[in-house]
Amino acid sequence: MATAQFLCNSSYQPSFKRKNPRNFSQNSSFSSFSRHGYCNFNRNLRFHTAPFVRAMASDSKLGTKQIEIVYDPDERINRLADEVDNTSGLSRLTLFSPCKINVFLRITSKREDGFHDLASLFHVISLGDKIKFSLSPSKDKDSLSTNAPGVPLDERNLIIKALNLYRKRTGSNQFFWIHLDKSVPTGAGLGGGSSNAATALWAANQFSGGLASEKELQEWSGEIGSDVPFFFSHGAAYCTGRGEVVKDVVPIPKEIPMVLIKPQQACPTGEVYKHLCMDQTSKVEPLSLLEKISENGISQDICINDLEPPAFQVLPSLKKLKQRILAAGRGQYDAVFMSGSGSTIVGIGSPDPPQFVYDDEEYQNIFWSEAHFLTRGENQWYAEPSSTLPTETE
Kind of enzyme, top EC level (predicted)? Predict the structure, then answer.
């Protein structure tokens, strides 16, 4: 006589009344798959316990012959997890948006279109913003918010310009909710807005599953601003033209510390260039500066910025700040120079500002931050460092 027996482990009580065992939920989470259990079904979730249902059958007339059927619900659940991974698109993404400094900046000529040709060593650094992207149900508008007063939230913002450009170039119909958590000061010569634009292009491409190559993103980004293509380098590049011609170079070791010091006043880039006199710029060959850095590292004679004299005309207090840092930081810094068109002064070689930044009432509300050089890996965006925090003196 044949007999049958079901053996269940004590932690799992299956219900066989449900006609459709796959109908756990209408969305990517399910619960109560048994009367005694609860699970949140998230992407990449795997169950490592092994509840089972075992059916055994025997027949006394056949002696010891048995048939054993094992049902393992883990296998079904893990298959469902794989299915969700393969079919669910990206819905949220948070990215670090780092800024840059110009280790040297030569202005080589004035162009017929009114712009200037430059030759500069750009390098990404560890100070940056954080941008959160979420898919929006809207099919005609992005929504941007920020913690920084005065930052435009419409099409004037380079993030929105970048997303519009991506949709135009790829035909994507995705729109976003974006929150910009700003740490990089504006009007600082650090390329914060350009970095935000590059980061937005990268994010849009991730949401769409990679409709564009990195090379295409870099080429398109020049339509947004001259500094944007640089951020699609690996983090260190020799940039020429208006800044959009980008050639990767060997990065500077990230162990080298620096401090960024910026007064409250900004330096409008347009005003700085208006005060630029080409006959007063340096005559040093830019490639020789690049060679010296690769051979001997950073020093004061290498960190030339042709925009310093006109920036100091626009903002005389900035010249005074640089002179005070040089005088107070003798031996503390390998080089002190202005980044971009200002108004940030960079001290290479120490993460600490001079003591007068703390002591003098004149610099009570000055911005400063420690930083280091940063790069990114192949097919990855820049990773947020855990140790660099912007600071305002009190």
Answer: transferase
Which region among 12-16, 294-298, 373-377 has the lowest average model confidence (pLDDT)? 12-16
* Ramachandran assignment for 340, one of left (phi > 0), alpha (psi -120 to 50 degrees), beta (any other): left
Contacts of 377 (CB under 8 A, 6+ apart): 234
Q: How many domains does the chain have?
A: 1
In this structure, is residue 224 part of a structural domain? yes
| 391 band by pLDDT with thresholds 50, 70 and 90 | low
Q: Residues 227, 194: contact at Cβ < 8 Å?
A: yes
Going by C-alpha positions, the residue among 307, 316, 314 that lies closest to residue 101 is 307
- 100, 161, 262, 322: the active-site residue: 100
Q: Is residue 177 in a domain?
A: yes
CA 227 to chain centre: 15
Question: Nearest Cα to 7, choosing from 68, 77, 73, 60?
Answer: 68
> What are 101's strand-pairing partners?
123
pLDDT band with cut points at 50, 70 and 90 for residue 114: confident
CATH of the domain at 102: 3.30.230.10
Residues 6+ apart with CB under 8 A from 4: 55, 56, 57
Give every CB contact of residue 254 below 8 A, 6+ residues apart in sequence.
Answer: 126, 372, 373, 374, 375
Mind listing the pLDDT tens digit for each residue in 148-168?
999 999 999 999 999 999 999
Tell me if residue 61 is catalytic: no
Contact 214, 232 (CB under 8 A): yes
Helix (H, G, I), strand (E, B) or coil at 160: helix
> Domain limits at 90?
81-372
* Largest interatomic CA distance in the chain: 109
Q: Catalytic: 59?
A: no
pLDDT by residue (tens digit) across 63-90?
A: 555 555 555 555 655 554 454 444 447 8
Q: What pLDDT shows up at residue 44? A: 40
Exactly one of 129, 142, 227, 306 is catalytic; name it: 227
